[in-house]
Design goal:
It is built from 2 helices and 8 strands, in the order E-E-E-H-E-E-E-E-E-H. With 164 residues, it is an alpha+beta fold. It has a single domain, classed as Protein Transport Mog1p, Chain A. The N and C termini lie far apart (54 Å).
Length: 164
C-alpha cells in the first residue's frame, strides 16, 4: 500500500478513535471522558488504495477537560496545535460556519502525502457541557465540502403514511 493512501487519526482533541473492520467504529471512552461517537471511512483503515481514505469522525469531549475554553472558537487552539504536530497546516483562520440554524466554528487544514494532498476540515460546537467536533477528511477540498454538505444537525419531522 502506498503511504499517501494511509488514513490517519484526525487532528481533533480526541485521540480515542477505535476503527473496526468495515470502516465504522464503536464509541470508545477514554479516562478523560472523551468519546468517538462515530468514525466512518471510505475504506477500512489500513486497506490498500491509491487515494486519500475519505472519512467522517464525530467526537465529544467534556468542556471541563479544557480550562479557559468558553467558545468553540477557543477550542481551535487545541485542534490547530494537534494538527500541526501531525504535519497539517492551517488553511486560513477558523471562522463561523452555519449548518441549518446551528452556528459552528470551522477550521481547514491540509497535509502533503507524497503525490497527494490530504484535506481536513474540523467543525466544532459546544452543546450541553461538551465540545462536539465533526472532522472530515478527503483527497480534495470539494470532496470534504461534499461530506460536510451531508451533515444535518436539525431535527426532522417524522412523516406518517396518510398524514396531510
Amino acid at each position: 500500500m502506498s503511504e499517501e493512501a494511509q488514513p490517519e487519526a484526525a487532528p481533533t482533541g480526541n485521540n480515542d478513535q477505535a476503527a473496526k473492520p468495515g470502516g465504522k467504529s464503536q464509541p470508545e471512552a477514554s479516562s478523560s471522558g472523551s468519546e468517538t461517537l462515530l468514525a466512518v471511512f471510505e475504506r477500512p483503515p489500513g486497506a490498500p488504495g491509491d487515494t486519500i481514505d475519505s472519512a467522517a469522525i464525530i467526537a465529544a469531549e467534556p468542556l471541563a477537560n479544557y480550562h479557559g475554553i468558553k467558545t468553540a472558537a477557543d477550542y481551535f487552539g487545541a485542534i490547530t496545535e494537534l494538527a500541526e504536530q501531525r504535519g497539517f497546516k492551517a488553511i486560513g483562520d477558523p471562522y463561523t460556519f452555519s449548518i441549518g440554524a446551528k452556528q459552528l466554528v470551522r477550521g481547514d487544514f491540509s497535509k502533503p502525502r507524497n503525490k497527494l494532498t490530504m484535506y481536513q476540515t474540523s467543525l466544532a460546537m459546544i452543546e450541553k457541557g461538551y465540545i462536539v467536533s465533526f472532522t472530515f477528511i478527503g483527497g480534495r477540498e470539494d470532496e470534504v465540502d461534499e461530506l460536510i454538505a451531508n451533515l444535518n444537525l436539525g431535527t426532522r419531522r417524522a412523516s406518517h403514511a396518510g398524514s396531510k
